[in-house]
């Protein structure tokens, strides 16, 4: 998608064997490219959220294994790299999925060839993610078009939470891919963008990428969604996911569950868009089984933003000394989800729905 009118991806390899990323902690104020040379660089970039979003951290971790193999391609080096990458963020299953895929290819590869095989694996996972997101966009845009046709001349009002756009993937995004495809089809779409405290991925990242793409949008405080739904100002909600159980429960950025409750109370369709790599086929109960990342309290007590002169400043917004807790994700039960939008189509959020689209995963674990 576009940054200042030029097509970009979120991550790409360099000729020298390193990897470059857009540092998302600097957006929307600066587009800063950061080079990852080592496993340490990669683990830190994921943990500090210079890259974030479930599909993107999976792809980054795959590249991290390739960088690790440059330094130590032994069995012990491979096992350590895989363990460190998987531990860098716990909720998004795409990360472990990508590491497992590349690691299993490397275990049957001689040490001398491991870097090259890991690079090939990372490229394949990245390209598959782009293709999956594009197809999610096509299927989700069909849903948006149905609403547009019923609504006459007025724009379709879509609400989203956090950033599940192209910045959270390699390209296109999950929840926002349908918006971009609908826009390309000439559908008039307006997006309500939840600011998404505490890290403000909505206000900073979703608003940035929608603006760069020329999509009409309005940032709202996280708590405004229920009010807008009560007044008929939201036609549908589409969010992304970090992990979906085989029964259709979906973990996503903290606050997603409250939006689903408000949507159910107001009869607003609530869709979750995600590729198959986000489904954890081993799990049947999202609330009980999905690990929820807890991050540092300072993300709640402090905020970073730009001053009038463009410099960045970090300020405290809480009462000094008050403790804070920072749960990064919550789980929306399948019963509150109208449908899952996947690369293979749209299905009910249920074991039957997912199994029908992905029969190769239907066997019980
Ligand atoms: O903490 P983040 O910014 O990595 O959380 C991201 C989200 O919750 C996204 O909605 C999710 O990863 C889906 S990304 C396509």
Give the C-alpha Rg. 20 Å
Can you tell me the number of structural domains? 2
Total number of helices: 12
CATH topology of the largest domain: Rossmann fold
Strand neighbour order, sheet with most strands: 8-7-6-9-12-17-18
Please summarize the sheet with the most strands. 7 strands, mixed
CATH superfamily of the largest domain: Translation initiation factor eif-2b, domain 2
What amount of the residues lies in strands? 15-25%
The end-to-end span amounts to: 38 Å
* Helix content percent band: 25-40%
CATH class designation of the largest domain: Alpha Beta
Total beta strands: 18
Secondary-structure element order, N to C: EEEEEHHHHHEHEHEHEEEHEEHHEEEEEH
Bound molecules: 5-S-methyl-1-O-phosphono-5-thio-D-ribulose
Anisotropy-based shape:
globular
- Structural class determined from secondary elements: alpha/beta
Known CATH architecture of the largest domain:
3-Layer(aba) Sandwich
